[in-house]
Amino acid sequence: MASKLHQLKAKAAQASQIMANQGNAYYKQLLEQNKQYIVNQPTVEACQELSKKLFYTRLASIPGRYESFWKELDGVKHIWRNRRELKVEDLGIAALFGLELYGWFCVGEIAGRGFTITGYYV
């Protein structure tokens, strides 16, 4: 156990050294690549304006999302009405989708609890 802790400390020190040497260059490169998104005068007013733009842009996109939702729901209703005509491939895709949902929600919940089934740490 002590050797693993020593290895972990060594790896952390190595990562820290790399970040100290190359972190500044990476930071500058990242800012240079994304300079079109940087506000020249980052004042409180500019930040509030950007926040309002984001909020109202999201608000304006609700009707389009609403329409898309109902189109998707109509498609699901159509598939459900014609479920006797489904192919094996379609059923396989649906089964994989169900497994993916199970993985995201159930297994993710277990992982979030520290891989305990009951939620208590032993």
UniProtKB/TrEMBL annotation:
Keywords: ATP synthesis, CF(0), Hydrogen ion transport, Ion transport, Membrane, Mitochondrion, Transport
Stored InterPro entries: ATP_synth_F0_gsu_mt (IPR006808)
GO MF annotation list: proton transmembrane transporter activity
Keyword Ion transport: yes
GO BP field: proton motive force-driven ATP synthesis
Location(s) in or outside the cell: Mitochondrion membrane
Pfam family, one: ATP-synt_G
Stretches that traverse the bilayer: none
Keyword Disulfide bond: no
GO CC, any one term: proton-transporting ATP synthase complex
Family stated for the protein in its record: Belongs to the ATPase g subunit family.
Record-given protein name: Mitochondrial ATP synthase subunit G protein
Organism encoding this protein: Platanthera zijinensis
